[in-house]
Amino acid sequence: MRQVVMFDDVRELELWPSKLFDKYLDLTKKEIKHFFTKDKLVDISCPACDSIDKKQAFQKFGLQYMECKNCKTLFLSPRPNNDLIHKFYKESEAADFWYSELYKTTIKKRTIHQSIPRAMWIANITEEFFQKPEIFVSINTISQSLLEEISRLNLFKRKYLFDPYIKNINTMFEKEGFKILSKSSEINANAASAFGVLDRVFSPKDFLKNARSLLKDNGILFITTSTISGFDLQVLWDKTKSIFPPDHINVISIEGFSYLFEKSGFEIIELSTPGQLDVELVKNAIKNNNINISRFISYLLNNRDENAHKSFQEFLQRFKLSSHVRIAARKKE
Ligand SMILES: [Zn+2]
To answer: Could you tell me the strand order of the sheet in which 266-272 lies?
Structure first.
């Protein structure tokens, strides 16, 4: 399995001006009570390894996160079903704010730091496995700029959007040559992408099953998501701003990804944690919120210089201990 260490990729949190991000969190927290009433939530076992052995971790916005005792995945349970999650992203003020304010404010940064590197990643690996790749599908797309960059590659003859999360789909998609698929069908794609999606689906297993049905044999699925194995999430735990429902209801561990992909008929060909800001996020959280952390980490952050912190971040990337993960997985026959 390959692994990349340095990579220009970023998490949502790292793209957003903090005031806008805080407003998004406030809106989400307020609306969750109306969209996800307790009687509509369902209990689940671990969404990565299926184990029923779990313990309470912490609450966020009044909802309960559990930790799997087997693979250490963190997940929301009880949780809203897929219909409720979709409804939230189509109708909530928070989702509206995301597209009308945050997306517009960050589109330049997003293109440079997120969409271009992601499109290049897709192109490089796809070309390695297919001499003449023809079909690409983007699953539950949330970013328009990614689609533009995929078009710019001039690599795929046919391009599809499967069940996009974007509201008010405009003619831009047609201009870039994308067709919308609302139901799963046999399109035999060479490559499929789902960036920032696995965090927010009701069942990661069903999601992968669906993705598998869109791919041809040996087709590649490209994913980015958060992982609870990462440094800042492990250190900050309930104090992190990166974990909240419904955007992050599955925060799967590195071990959990192995179970999940293997069981779903995929072979992982790349799993990297190329995040760059774990150390920075912990530093900022301590400075702004007076959070207690372990003596060693406190000593490392306060008594060593930028060089040491940079090397430490590289260590986290190298040993799959950063909270931002990217996975390329091949559909097994
Ligand atoms: Zn588990």
So the answer is: 178-181, 158-162, 135-139, 189-195, 215-226, 324-331, 266-272
25 CA to centre of ligand 1 in angstroms = 27
CA-closest candidate to residue 18, choices 302, 284, 225, 323: 284
Amino acid at 117: P
Distance CA 322, CA 279 (A): 9
pLDDT digits (tens, 9 = 90+) for 55-111: 999 999 999 999 999 999 999 999 999 999 989 988 999 988 988 888 788 888 888
CATH class of 12-331: alpha beta
Average pLDDT rounded to a whole number, residues 187-192:
96
CA 261 to centroid of ligand 1, rounded, Å: 13
pTM: predicted TM-score of the whole model, two decimal places: 0.93
Distance in Å, CA 144 to ligand 1 centroid: 33
